[in-house]
Automatic annotation (TrEMBL):
Superkingdom of source: Bacteria
Protein name: Uncharacterized protein
Keyword Repeat: no
Pfam family for this entry, one: DUF6297
Membrane-traversing stretches: 21-41, 47-71, 105-126, 132-150, 223-241, 247-269, 290-311, 368-398
Length: 399
């Protein structure tokens, strides 16, 4: 073991941000955009609060739930990864791999802390909250970190965290493989590859399509707690951010909460051999998974409804139509056909050439939701709104 910092040969410092290449341009552009947001606070007030007075306690509660949601994501320990070649080099040269992994834990934590700090500062500045809210927000970050970080990383020397000491080579390589899949899915505009895998579920053997759909949901039960937190975010944002349409909040929240549970049919759709082995029509598979997702969507909606009732501000009736729409969005996202790269159809955009056909295939699912939410926002009531929304739901289930 060496006392010097681990330096992997051939790797750019600071993730290539100082290389002068594309990462530098993206970093400078993002930094400028983030800073300019604080010079347009009046615009943010009109968008988020619609000229209404802010509710500092509710806004603080929204920030607290977001902090739990974002910092709590460290509990899945996605930071435990290392490239096999790097591991071999570390072991061969006598370096300590624990220092490398421990440093990444702190980097992941600090990145989430920066994101939360920026979001909280922007919301507080736009809402012109009193000074005590700023102090309370800082206390929330300290409290959530004190609870979550020891559970995710353990307690020990900063450069030799217990979670890094316990991570063996196979665990790090498995984490690296999962990371490669995520990077490839982003590079090739195929978000369906990012749907989470299943965990073993005890119980009887699966003997029907209905049981198969339910087993796929149960194998991803670890995402139930984030789904409940997202329902709480929707309920709090409904009161704290009156300028944001309710249909937008419900649609985004339900889609994010239900998307991990579409991993079962998503994995099935990427395996034509497995689909043939099941010897069931595609329409039957879609129907049973739609029913299972519908049940989860109903449970999620009940949690969100309970939150709005406790806050004394129930959501408008039309906004709840975004819940079945979100379930159809998830099904449409998970059952997308394989992306074709033979004719991407390039076109010029302000950010350079873009493959229109690939982008259109990548947004399959959210495209249905955007159209439905626009209908709900522009026409929040009426029989035509209900019929159009239900028509989009049926389209998402069948196509």
């Amino acid at each position: 073991m060496t006392a010097t910092a681990v330096r992997v040969p051939g790797r750019a410092r600071f993730g290539g941000l100082l290389s002068g290449d594309t990462p530098t341009f993206i970093a400078v552009f993002a930094f400028g955009w983030l800073v300019m947001a604080f010079f347009r606070l009046e615009w943010w007030r009109s968008v988020l609060f619609a000229g209404m007075a802010a509710h500092p306690p509710v806004l603080l509660g929204l920030f607290a739930v977001l902090a739990v949601l974002l910092l709590g994501s460290m509990l899945n320990r996605s930071f435990l990864w290392a490239e096999p070649a790097v591991l071999t080099w570390l072991d061969f040269t006598g370096h300590d791999r624990v220092r490398l992994v421990s440093g990444r834990v702190w980097t992941v934590w600090f990145g989430r802390l920066l994101a939360l700090g920026y979001l909280g500062a922007l919301l507080a500045a736009a809402a012109t909250v009193p000074l005590w809210t700023w102090y309370a927000g800082f206390g929330v970050l300290v409290l959530v970190t004190a609870v979550v970080l020891p559970r995710a990383a353990g307690v020990g020397p900063p450069l030799r965290l217990p979670v890094a000491v316990a991570a063996g080579r196979q665990r790090l390589v498995d984490g690296w493989s999962a990371r490669v899949v995520r990077l490839v899915s982003v590079t090739f505009l195929d978000p369906s590859m990012m749907l989470p895998s299943a965990h073993p579920v005890p119980g009887r053997p699966v003997r029907s399509v209905a049981a198969f759909a339910l087993a796929g949901m149960a194998a991803r039960a670890r995402f139930a707690v984030p789904a409940v937190l997202l329902a709480s975010v929707v309920a709090l944002a409904h009161v704290a951010l009156p300028g944001v349409p309710d249909a937008v909040l419900v649609g985004l929240g339900a889609y994010a909460a239900l998307l991990p549970f579409g991993g079962g049919i998503g994995q099935l759709w990427r395996s034509p051999g497995l689909r043939r082995w099941l010897d069931v029509s595609d329409r039957a598979l879609r129907g049973w998974h739609a029913a299972a997702l519908g049940g989860l969507a109903l449970g999620w909606a009940l949690v969100a409804f309970a939150g709005t009732v406790l806050l004394g501000s129930p959501l408008a009736g039309a906004a709840w139509l975004a819940v079945p729409l979100a379930a159809a969005m998830v099904l449409r996202t998970a059952t997308r056909p394989p992306i074709g790269y033979d004719s991407p159809g390039m076109t010029d955009t302000p950010f350079g050439p873009a493959p229109v056909r690939l982008v259109a295939q990548a947004v399959r699912g959210p495209d249905l939701g955007v159209l439905g939410v626009l209908v709900l926002v522009s026409q929040p009531s009426g029989v035509l709104t209900v019929l159009v929304t239900l028509g989009l739901v049926v389209w998402g289930v069948l196509r």
